[in-house]
Amino acid sequence: YWPQSVMLNRADAVVTVSETTRKLIAEHRLTRRPVAVVHNAPSPLPGGPEDGPDEAGDEAGGPRELVYMGSFMPYKNVETLVAGMAFLPGYRLHLVSRIAPQREAELRAQLPPGADVVFWRGIGERDYQRLLARASALVTASRDEGFGLPIIEAMNAGTPVVCSDLEIFREVTGGHAEFFDPDSPEGFAAAVHRVADAQVRADLVAAAREQAAKFSWANSAERLLELMRDLVR
């Protein structure tokens, strides 16, 4: 990590996006400088987060829908989501991000028989918000993250989160998500089934919205401005 250390030690202050990342910086002794946390935040939703559904918004008579937003790099561990579809009949998994043809072919080769998986190969903001609003859950099986902005976006939209049990996801969600072992497709499926319960879903959405309200660009800008003022005093 020496190149990072050289750069960070030249700074007057270091800013990162989460307490989890600040802890990692300290553990690896990347800098002697003070490290401040200024969170990322979601873009405002049209009409505000109150417009999100309190119950599963899947289209009547259609499959329950799951949404994955993120890259397809190995650490994102999309393979667990794909494998878990073997235990989720009646569900459709939407992989909405851009994907290289070779990577798509790799994942298609791993699809369980009968699995309902849609490769969007990129999605516009309006289509993404519509899909998220009617989804049963936003899902991710990532093995490592620095923040997890799609999770905050889902919480802000009133969509339950089903995610791998990482320290950063515990921090961002405040524990208001259904967690699973990223090495367990069966665990992923079980977590999805848990949020299908109407009461579990309602409680999760209410608590997650309150947690998501802590993340705003206004709050982050104010924190960053406060830090800069401290530096010039």
Which key phrases capture this entry?
233 residues; two-stranded parallel ribbon; 10 helices; globular
Short structural summary:
The chain is an alpha/beta fold. Residues 47-58 have low confidence and may be disordered.
Please outline the helices and strands.
Blueprint: H1 2-9, E1 14-16, H2 19-27, E2 35-37, E3 64-68, H3 78-84, E4 91-95, H4 101-108, E5 116-119, H5 125-134, E6 137-140, H6 149-157, E7 161-164, H7 167-173, E8 178-180, H8 185-195, H9 198-212, H10 217-232
Helix pairs in contact: 3-8, 6-9
Q: Pairing-aware structural class of the strands and helices?
A: alpha/beta
Poorly predicted runs: 47-58
Total count of helical runs of at least 4 residues? 10
Instruction: Calculate the mean pLDDT score and round it.
Output: 91
Distance between the termini: 31 Å
- The proportion of residues forming helix, as a percent range, comes to 40-55%
Task: Characterize the biggest β-sheet.
Answer: 6 strands, parallel
Molecular shape: globular
Strands, count: 8
Q: Could you spell the SSE succession in H and E letters?
A: HEHEEHEHEHEHEHEHHH
Strand order of the largest sheet: 5-4-3-6-7-8
User: Per DSSP, what share of the residues sits in E-state strands of 2 or more residues?
Assistant: 5-15%
| Rg over C-alpha atoms, rounded to the nearest angstrom | 19 Å
Task: Describe it.
- The protein is α/β, with parallel strands linked by helices.
- It is 43% helix and 13% strand.
- It contains ten helices and eight strands.
- It has helices at residues 2-9, 19-27, 78-84, 101-108, 125-134, 149-157, 167-173, 185-195, 198-212, 217-232, and strands spanning 14-16, 35-37, 64-68, 91-95, 116-119, 137-140, 161-164, 178-180.
- The strands form two sheets. The protein has a six-stranded parallel β-sheet with strand order 5-4-3-6-7-8, with helices on both faces.
- Strand 4 (91-95), helix 4 and strand 5 (116-119) form a beta-alpha-beta unit.
- Helix 3 (78-84) packs across helix 8 (185-195) and helix 6 crosses helix 9.
- The longest helix is centred in the C-terminal third of the chain and has 16 residues, at 217-232.
- Mean pLDDT is 91; it is low at 47-58.
